[in-house]
Structures are given as structure tokens and as C-alpha cells.
Amino acid sequence: MRLSWKNATASGCLALAVTASVTGATHAVPAMSSASGASTHTVAAAVTATSATTPAEDRTFVSTTATGGSETTLRVTLDPNSDGSPLKLTRAERDRIAAVVGAPTTGRKAAQEASGGARHQVGPVGPVEKKRAPATLRCDKNASWSDANGTLHARFNCKYSTINWGYKISARVKSFITSKVNERGVSWWNNGKRKPNNAGHVVGKSYHFHGTLKPVRHGDHVQFQDYMAFRVNIGGRTGTGSITWASDVKAKK
Q1: Can you tell me the distance from the alpha carbon of 188 to that of 194, in angstroms, rounded to the nearest whole number?
Q2: pLDDT at 69 over 80
Q3: 26: buried, middle or exposed (CB in 10 Å: 19+, 13-18, 0-12)?
Q4: Which of 53, 79, 138, 157 has its CA 20 to 30 A from that of 101?
Q5: Three-state SS at 71
Q6: In terms of DSSP H, where are the helices of 117-190?
């Protein structure tokens, strides 16, 4: 996996691009894009071709949800046939799998739209959207944000100049995970400056992922994200899944 923050525009917007080699797909996790702070939900079956002979447009499903101070993307790519031939899914089967993943919009048009939107910018996405301010983490207040993929907890421990975070995968996603979860380890930035990663883990799906970001002081703008991959079985169809979550916060006493 290759992960990087870079300047997106002269106005100082930042872009987070995450490239993962697990499924041959390119992932990106935007920070919040809603001006009102209300959650947004984008779902689609995505085009992510892994090779010329095993196109993935009919077997990759993506669900992205923004809630409060976090955003998560769940991606599932089903395996090709055992002989290497492309997997052929009926429309009914695709719809059934998409519903389990949380991506009810399927079909080639939706897949092309999802592929075209694979890289997101922190800031305006369209002409009617405004850049969303970071969520505020108050000293010793335990904030949490939940969606269909999991729950992120974060706390600014101002006494010790740290942010403590925790993440748990949801029961819905755990229901189709069949392997241990390979967590990359949180990457983070403080006021735009890259900081050392937290340690990764290879653990069971019920593990409470957690870590500490330091030093973090009053007024710091902190952005952090994690990537975790696993094997799945959905209705007898096996494949590789991943969750990428990101958070954009400002530490306040």
C-alpha cells in the first residue's frame, strides 16, 4: 500500500490518496464534504480491473459513508472462477450481494461512476458543496461516530497531549469476514505534517483496534486514517474485502 497527502489546490486544500495492492484497486478516503455536518452516503458497484482477463467491474462493490467526524469505505471484490475465467454474476445475484455489502446501486453505469470517483479531495467535490470544517475534539470528551461499517472513538487527552482512538468493525461486516483482519496501522498528520504510523495488527475480526497520536496540543488540526483487509464469503461467493476509515478533527481544551 502507498499512502500520501499532497496539496490539492493553491487554496491549501489537502488530498488523501490511498493505493492498496490487495485487490488491485486504488482507494481514496476523503475527509468530510458536507457543509451541514449531516452524514452522506455514496454506494455503487465499482470498476477495478485486476487484469485484462479477469475484469472486476461485475464483482466489486463499494459503500462509502460519512458520519460526524469520520468517513469509511467498504470495498469487496469477489474472486474470479477457479479456472481463472471471469466471474459471471446475474443481475439478481449482484443486487443481493450489493445489499449485503451496503451498495444497492449496481450495474455498469454505476460502476463507471464509482471508478471515476475513486480519488477524492478534501474540500469541495462539486459546485454546490462547501468544504467541511474538522470535527472538534474537546479535552477528555469521548466522541464516537458510527456507521454500517463500524464505530470510531476518539479522545483528546489534553493533560498528556495525546489523542487516543479506537475502532471496532460492525456486526454486519463481521458476519461475512472469514479470516483474520490485516490492519495497516494508522497514518496521521498534525497541522499538515506527516507523523510516524501507529503499529499495525493481524488479529481477529472482533478486535478493538486502538492507538495513540502524540504529541497533540490545543488548536492542532489532526487528520488520521487506517486501512484493514480481510477475506469474505457472501452467499457462497468468496473474495477480498477492505475497510478504509478517515477522520479530520481539531483538538480543543
Answers
A1: 6
A2: yes
A3: middle
A4: 53
A5: strand
A6: 171-174
Cα–Cα distance, 75 to 66 (Å, whole number): 15
Q: Which amino acid is at 239?
A: G
Considering the entire predicted model, what is its pTM?
0.72
Amino acid identity of residue 106, one-letter, is T
Instruction: Please return the burial class of 39, using the count of CB atoms within 10 Å of its CB with bins 0-12, 13-18 and 19+.
Output: middle
The DSSP output letter for 122 is E
Closest to 188 (Cα-Cα) out of 159, 160, 162:
162
**Distances, alpha carbon 8 to alpha carbons 27, 116, 149, 225, in Å:** 17, 17, 28, 18
Residue 10 has pLDDT above 60, yes or no: no
- Write the CA distances from 74 to 34, 121, 135, 142, 249, integer angstroms: 19, 18, 22, 25, 22
Question: Residue 175 in 3-state DSSP?
Answer: coil
β-strand 40-45 against 60-67: which pairing, if any? antiparallel
